[in-house]
Specification:
heterodimer; A: alpha/beta; Arc Repressor Mutant, subunit A; 2 domains; 22% strand; B: alpha+beta; 3 domains; five-stranded antiparallel sheet; 49% helix; 20% strand; rod-shaped
Chain lengths: 223, 467
Amino acid sequence: MRILVIEDEPGIATFLKEGLEEETYAVDVAYDGKSGLSLALENMESYDIFLIDWMLPGLSGLEITRRIREVNKQVPVIFLTAKDTIDDTVFALDMGANDYIKKPFSFDELLARIRVQLRKGREDATELKAGHLVLNLHTHEAFVGDKEIYLTQKEFALLEFLLRNKGRVCSRTRIIQHVWDINYDSDTSVIDVYINALRKKIQTGTDEPIIKTVRGLGYIIKE
Amino acid sequence: MKNLSFNRRVALNFMGATAIMMLLIYLTIYAVVYRTVYNHMNNDLLAEARELREGLTVQNDSLFITSQREWREPEHGLLEINPIFIQVSRPHGLVKKSPNLGQDKLYVRPSLTEIRYFKDTIKSKPIYQLQFPVTDASGQKKGDILVAVPLKDTQMVLVNLRTVLILSFPIIIVLLFFITNYIAGRSIAPVNNLMREAGNITGKNYTHRLPLPKRKDELYYLTKSINDLIARLQEAIQREKQFTSDASHELRTPLSSMKGVLEVALRKSRNQEYYHDKLYILLDEVNKMSTLSEQLLWLARYEQGNQNIKQEKFSLLEILHQQYELLEDELHKKSLYLNLEFCKDIDIMTDWMMLNRIIQNILTNAIKFSPENTEITVKTFTKEKHAAIEISDHGDGIDPQELDKIFDRFYQADNSRSAQTGGSGLGLSIVKRFTDLLGIAIQAKSRKGEGTSFILEIPLTDQASRI
């Protein structure tokens, strides 16, 4: 899952990026309104959620939200702001934000709210399953049958992405877009390396492989 | 009276005043009519008496009627039409009386020695009578001439007049009360409207304005001043709101950052280097917060007025050199050159600490907005009993329309906060507050792309100036 954070306070932006990356999200940061908006518009398909500060130099968070909504009505937008009146909250939500978190906020609450936004319109669960494989999005634990397996952050993120798109072929480009952040060059061969590592960890004996390769297209986890 | 409505009170007051005035006018009218009527009768009676006297002779203590001409006039014979009764008496008896008296006699007051008028009755009808004493050549009284007219008509005129006046008085007063009440009610109606409208203006709804009346009368100007007052209040409330909102934003931002850094750090165990990094970030945020709280304190301390101002005499150059030492590191970081070559030493008399803070804030600002490797120039000079300090940078400058906002609390050059330059936006508002308190004129000049200058003009007292 890839997140765009638009936040001008370097202190806040830094801990958001670090903390979210530890939670297996791919995170891009823009420090002002204009670059934030252009990043959002250029990579609209890649981002699964936007975290936007209200007061930004150049372009306000409200304006960015409005512009994002012009091209994409679905993508979740969460407002982070020190404005705290009910009027402000109502205004922001009316302008197209999906949620509104007041500063200073608890990081756990932010994570929960991001999960809520990502869960919406999809399976309403904190667990993703395929055969014997169970992925708990809350605790970041993975099980094959009763046995817990240990995944790196990127492995977990990759597996989560494939499971969320269960039954659909995920192209390497799409995987790069949603699992890796913008600082990665688009060398998709890195995916094959991670897929191999994943297969080793989740495969049990003689069963049919969980992650299948679709030649020329990408990877798929079937029902 | 206290709880009466405005229109009632106007009506009552007006009624009272009119009642007193009407009473005076009525009394005057009555008195004038009364006097006129009786004067007229007096004159008639006197003329009649004088004519009769001419037809009389006094001889040997007796009165003789020498001319009968007067006695033959019809008004003395008839009773029906405007009769005039006449009678001539001796001290102990009647000489002659007019026929219209019939059996009756006019009453004589024997001791009377001068002309007098009486009210009397004859045949139980009121008459008005003149007694005219007749004297001989030596002044001795020999008898009286009596002339009288019926009073009935005159009295009727006066009674009628009195009735009309007495009856009309309460009717006019009551009518007047209702008319005034109505008119006052109508004139007060716009005020009542105003009251209702003003009642609609609440803390939440202060954007509402009272509708201006069409006529430019007192009410128009009252409404206008109320509207102006509301506008000023709105502005003050807005400023206060903005300040609270800005202050809370400025305090929350570093707090959010600290809270987030700490929460993320505590999610798992980390290595030494990580903690080291994070502690530096936290220290940075703590510094930001302490600067902000210090500045808020500076503002608050001098919010109430000037009780803390100390006037001292000191050298301007000394302050500038001190500031230079204080800011040397920051100047060095951006390779800026602080040019003090055009500084004259001027002795001034003002609050040392506050002026120091003013110059420091302006210089810090200049450093913040100067591109690297540029010069910040400080000039001091005297100008018409003022010591002037001009501090110029070569930064981006400020838009002319933004220039008058730079002294607002929490104003920052971009409409949203700019994290790159840092700062709270309180620096210049402290400068403005302090210059106001010290009587220093401050002026900001700027050209987009060329830089900004701040000019301070400190008033010089005679003892302090030395060029």
